[in-house]
Specification:
This protein is mainly α. It has 2 domains: 1-39; 42-72, no CATH class. It has helices at residues 2-38, 44-56, 60-71. Helix 1 (2-38) runs antiparallel to helix 2 (44-56). The termini are far apart. The relative contact order is 0.07.
């Protein structure tokens, strides 16, 4: 019983660290995207492109529709 509890705790810690690493990578990617658009003149097209890169790429729904369109 003790071994199974320790195993559970180790898996939970490993999962937590993996999620933290993925979150940090995503945060770094978002900063790179924002820095890219910092030099552009701000207009509706720039805002749409920025939103698409920040939100559309990482959303489950957006990725699902992209993968369905790629199959066609």
């Amino acid at each position: 019983m003790y071994i199974s509890f320790v195993s559970f705790v180790v898996r939970a810690i490993k999962s937590l660290l993996t999620r933290a690493a993925v979150s940090a990578e995503q945060l770094h990617a978002n900063h790179a995207i924002i820095a890219h658009y910092a030099g552009h003149r701000w207009c509706d097209a720039t805002e749409r492109a920025l939103n698409e890169e920040l939100i559309g790429r990482g959303s489950w729904l957006g990725n699902r529709f992209e993968s369905q369109n790629d199959l066609r």
